[in-house]
Each structure stands twice: as structure tokens, then as C-alpha cells.
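In practice, a research group might receive sequence data for several interacting partners and want a quick structural hypothesis before committing to experiments. The following worked case mirrors that situation: the sequences arrive first, and a predicted assembly follows.
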Amino acid sequence: MIKNYLPRPYKNIALKLSLLLFLSLFSLTSVQGDTLYEGSDSNLRISSSTLTMNSGDSILLGLEFELNEGWHTYWINPGDAGGEASVEWKLPKGFSASEILWPGPDLIPVEPLMTFGYEDEVTLLSQLSSSSAATFPAIIKAKVSWYTCKDICIPQEGEVSIVIDKGLKKATEDESFLSAAFKKMPKTLPGSVRVEKLDNNYYLQTDIENSNSLQSAYFFPKEYGLISYTQAQNLEINDKNISLEIKPAEVSLEKDTFKGLLRLDRESGSEYFIIDEPLKKQPKTFSVQGVSILTAMVFAFLGGLILNIMPCVFPILSIKILSFVEQSDGSKKKMAQHGLAFSGGVLVTFLSIAGLLLLLKSGGESIGWGYQLQSPLMVSLLIYLFVAIGIVFMSNLVIGSQLSSLGNLATGYKDITGSFFTGVLAVVVASPCTAPFMGSALGVALLQPGFSSIAIFLSLGLGFAAPYLLLSFYPGLLRFLPKPGEWMENLKQFMAFPMWGSALWLTWVLSGQVSTETVLVVLIGALLIGMSLWLFEKTQTAVGFWKKVSTLVSVLLITLAVYIAPTKYEEIATQTTNDESIYSQKNLDLLLASNQRVFLNFTADWCITCKVNEKVALERNAVKKALESKDIKYLKADWTRKDSVIADKLAEYGRTGVPLYLMFPSEGEPIFLPELLTEDMLLNYIDELK
Amino acid sequence: MSRCLFFIFILFFEHLIASVQINEPAPDFTLTDSHGDKISLSGFKGRTVILEWTNHGCPFVARHYDTGNMQEIQKTARNDNAVWISIISSAPGTQGYVSKEKANELTKQRKAFPSNILLDLKGTVGRRYGAKTTPHMYLIDKEGVLRYQGAIDDAGGRGFASKDLSKATNFVKKGLEEIKRNVSISSNTTKPYGCSIKYKSQ
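A structural hypothesis for the assembly, expressed as C-alpha cells:
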């Protein structure tokens, strides 16, 4: 009836007989239980490494389950269905049994579900210890309930017992089997272990010797709601370490630790290792998964629309309005072409940014939205660009289409390529403004697999380009724009001021990234750009040799300006700020550990929204007083420069950009504040904080 | 082009769904009940709905019915005008599969109070909801939003066979009360326990 049951039953019968004999010799009145319980399609037997022990000794007990072919029983985590065995010890005074030791399980798929358990046979172990209070002979009893399952399950309950007498330990026939089973129990890994959650996958990494002999690996989770039971786990074997990609649970629960067993399979057999690694806590209040991708796309589209009225985009908007006014007497077809070219520029740029971000992300770079302005080189080049555009607007300079795309950017409404590059420029300049409106959607975008990211970025681009597309296809709408005339020249000249204003703002951003000397260098670069344009204008009508010389000098001046632009961050003399108010994980942890309420401000100089919020709300006296009176500590995380610590922290809260305002109550999860703050709103939040 | 992308996108998205989301609308379905009537979830808008995946041959389910525990919760729920739907996703020939007549007979015999017993022979509804065990419970509020999924109570795990079910914390009762009081459900997802659902293999 029972498979794999030879020769152990005979041994067992011998044991029982000897036990009977032994008991009768000592004239005990009744036989206390049995070492074997015969259940349905499975048997349970108790065994011991010795039948004699002295007070203070520990011995190994085994609970051996023998299962008929095709039947299984379960591990401590049964997986999708079933249930683990439960053992209730009935011990005489002076004895204690350790927690049950569970051997590593196998995967037992029950399509479409997955369970973890044992087929054929399994031995659960426990260490039995005795104290000086122990009396002998001792009857050790275990009441065990378990499930024997195939496609259906049979619940079982049986009692087994064994008698231990006083004396020196003497190995039984079962001893070698039990100690071998003990040796095969899951161990701790020799190398260091790391668990990370990236791109919505867990990565379990560990250093390992002889990684080349490894065939496969599998992680068995100890608890429900951590990882998917049915999706494949992908193993990457490197020279000295391995990385196992594990999909999170379909229905996931919040977990503090990543607990379970890692099975490593080699030709020589499988070994199990205990994994118990802390997980970074994900706050419940902001769940990226909470926003569906379609919702994110709709928000992205709206966000794109709103971008058109943001201060960052305003200069570009003015270029576009000018171009539309000028074209309003042009042909319909031409208008549509310009509109499409502009939209093309916008979309291509959004896609390139998406591609770049994904590329950087896959390279493990910590990045975030608005990151373009974290590069001093990028900021410097934008300063030059805005200065140049301003000068072009102010002067009578007409830059021919054969010149560089820089010229096209400024006066691009002359041709189709110009429209395209205006689109490109608009996106680059607009990016710092997208973060506050797009926090959630971009969070989804960057944390999603590539395809969804790109869909969201495309929606953002479409929203951004929509008004121009509409205008270019329905030029009738242009009726609402004023007729061309001399005022256009005046308007064009006036538009130089917002351009230069943007340059001023960028200079200030730069001053947070490099030293004042380097800021001066960049301003000199801007001067060189100005000279180059002046020279160019003066020789506009010249021909021949002098024209060539002036062009050469102009190009040299621009090259020089670009050459001297800074590429790296520099130490800057910061004002003496109170160190305690600067964010660091340590600072935050210390404060939270002492149940301190905390207001955490993620900001950056290049984030206009952040600065506006600081002026109209955060730095108001009433707010400062309220924070003080409620004993809320203010922490500031400044992201003006690239900072992976801050980027990681933002990612932890599902964000990729600033601003982000968090209020930590004295206990529990932080509260997310809106990205646009007013004094009253902030005071309300402070007032309600527990 | 963008329309084409959109469709690819939808396909991709559909494929990702392997379970239902808490606090999102519960997916609608239509199945035949034990009286031969077509029953749709959307037909119960305005009433709280309890979905109970069941299999009378499963010892876990049997224990809940033998002790009268399940009937008691059903009674409480239905007295509150909630709809109790028992769903059988066992494929024909597997444990738990019953004919319509047998289903009605079981109800009578066990003195149970389901509003309807639905037969999900192909397992499509069970798979759509990610139902794994019997019992596996889902609570859907009056607006059709899924508010709870998981175990019937906290008696699962070691020693289930000897636990007093009436003393366990019953997540269904608790969830129904919380839905009634219109507060968020304290633990809206728990580990379902019981026998595996005997789905038709695909």
C-alpha cells in the first residue's frame, strides 16, 4: 500500500516489539500510544536519535510522513491552496520541544495554481530538551494534523508517541537518517544577500562560489502577498554572484521583510538557504499601481495642455504666436505643414527623453524629471541660447536658413525645419515645469515597463502640441488673433525681455551648481555670443573676403563660449545653514524614531513651482510659527544638483521629480501634500497633523 | 498610427490583469445559476454582494458548513439585504462539480442561504477574479466596487481542523459591517486558505 516503505516498516515493527517487551518488563499497565499512525493514503511515524537520555541532554525527534504515489503534503507556506501540518506536543514535566524544522519544499503545480510541498516522503524535525526536573521513562507524544492531497485533499489527524528512558545516549537505527535530515535543513547563505525592488520586480542577489556549476534557482516565499507563485523566476549567473528576478504578487500585501528559502540546484543536488532581508518600506498613501495607465495617459495629455501656459514655456509660446501671426496670410497647406512639423519636433523630443530616461534607468542611474537642468553644461548652453534669441529679437538680424539650427530655433518660423526645432526647444525648456503637474503620471511612466512609459510620454507630447495643431489645421481660429502690422516688430523686440529673463533665472540656477567664478565665466561666454551676433549683423551685407573672416570669427567666438562652459559641479560657499534642517536618511530616521513630527520639503532651485511655494507659503511667518508651536521639525532635501540619495528617496515615494511635500505624523505613514501650496492650506495641514 | 498603438496598448494591458484590484470596480460577469437563470453581477447594483467560491467536497468548506458557521454568516448578510452568491468553478468530473439539481439539494440539506449558486464550468469567472481556494471570499459594495478579497476568517493555517470557527475573526462579517458604516476596510486583502479550485485545464 505504501510506496518507498521498505525496509523501514520492518525496522519499525522491530522497534515496536522491543518497546512492548521493554514496557512489559517494567510492568506498565498500558501501552501509551504508538510510534506509527496509519492515515488515509499516508502514514506518520515518530522516531528518535536515541531512546535513552539524561537530564540536560537534547535529542533529535523526527516526524516522518510517508505518502502514497501521487499524493503530497505541504510546506510551512502551502502556496495557493492546502495547508501546512500542525504539531501539538504533549510532553511530561521537564521536557521541551523546539520549533518544527521544515525541509526545503518542491514546487507542486496544480494548474493554474502553485503549491509548495513534499511528495513521497518528508521528515519534520524537532529538538527535544530535558531539564533537571525531567523524570523517566518519559512518554513523548505528538498530536499531528495535516493534509494529504492529490487533486483533492484529505485532512488527517493522528497521535504518535515514543518512550525515552534514562541513560547515556545510544544511537538508534534512525539516528543516521535523522542527522542526515538535520544536515539537509535550510542554512544561512555564506555570501552577503541583497534584495531590491526595481521596475516592479524583486531582484534577489547574492555572492556565490562555483557559480558556473549552478543549473537553476528558485525562491520560495514564506508569506502570502510577497511574490507571484506562478510566474517564472529568471536567474542570471555572473562570475561571482547571481541575481534572481522575481515578480511581485498579483495581490500584494505590504511587507517589511523578504522572507523565504532560496533553492540552488546543481548536478550534485539541491540546497536550500534561508533568506530574511529587510525591505524598504513603501508608503501606502501613494500607490503607483493605484493609477491605471489609461488614467495616467489622460493626465499626461491634460498636463501637456497646461504646459502651454507655464512660465517655462512662455518664451516659446511667444515665438509660436509670432509665427502664426506672420503666417496667417500664408497658404492653408503651409500652415498645416508647420503645425505638423512643430508637433513632430515635440513628439520626437518627448520620445528621445523617454528613451534616454529608460536607458539611464536600465543602467541603474538614479534620475528624475527635470534632470536636464541638473547638468551645469546644459544650463550654460540654455543661457547662451536665450541670450542669443533675445539679441536676434532686438536687432534687425536676419539669419539665413543655410545657417546652423541655432538660427532656425530663433527665427524658425521661416521654414519647416525651423518649426520642427521650435518643437524640440519647447519641450527642453518646458521640462522643469512638468514635474508638479505630472508627479503621479510620470511616476507611473518611469516605474512601468518601457512600453507604458513611452505611451505616457507620447500623450504628454500630444497634449503639449494640441493647441498648435488645432490652430494650424483650422486657421479660421486665427481670426481671434490680431492682424499683422508694425506692432509685430515691436512685439518681437519686446519678447527679447522674457528671453533675457529666462537667461537670468538660469544663471541663478547655475549659481547653485558651480562657484561664483564659474558663473562669471559663463556670463563671459554670453558676452562672446553677443559679440558674435553683433559681428554677424554688421557684416550681413558684406561679401567676399571680409564676409568669410567675420563668419569665421563669429563661429570661433561661439566655439570659445561653449568651450569655457562648465561641465562639472563645484563646491560652493553655502550660507551657514542649520545642519539639522538638511535632509539625510539618518536625520529623518532619528527624528521619526523619537516620534517627532516632520515636514519634509523636496525642492530644487530650477523648480519654479518649488520656489513659488516657498515664497507664498513655506517661508511665511505664520507657517514658521505654526510649525514651531506644533513641534514639527522642518527638513529640506535640495535636489538642485544631481543627488542619488534624494532621487532614491523620491522614487521610494513613487516620484521622479520635485516638488514633493511630506508630513510625518508622530506615528504612521506620511501625508502627501499637494504640489501647489497656499498659506491657508498649509496651516490647515499643520493644524490637523497628529 | 496612434489608434493602432492604442489597440496594441489595450491588448498589452489586458494581458497584465491576473487579479482584481481592491477599491476598483469589480469586473462584471454573467453565469447560469442552479435554477437555470442567467445572473449578472451588474444586476445587483445598489446592493452589497458577497462572492463565495465553494466546493462541497473540500474539507475546509465542509467544516464551515458542518459547524453551521457559513450558514450563520449567510443569514446575517442576507438579513441586511446583501446578495450572497456561491460560485462553483470546479470543472465537470472534478471534486465539487455538481448538477443544478444536486446544487439545490445541497442547499436544502445544509440549510444554507445563498441568494444564487452559479456554475462556472469553464472557470472563466474564477480565473478572472484570481480565485484560488475554496472558500475564497470577495465583497463588492453597492457601487460595484471591490472592497475585500481573501479568506473567510483567520482560522486558516495550522490547526484549522480543531479551531472553534465561531471564535475566529470573521473577515466577511467584519467587512460587511465596515461597508455598512461606510468606512474603509481595515484589512482589505488576506491570504485565502482552503482547497485548490479544481479548474478546467486550459
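Before designing any experiment, note the following. The mean pLDDT of chain A is 78. The interface with chain B takes residues 80-86, 88, 110-113, 115, 145, 147, 149, 151-155, 157, 223-225, 250-251, 253, 289, 293-294, 451-452, 455, 458, 462 of chain A (CB under 8 Å).
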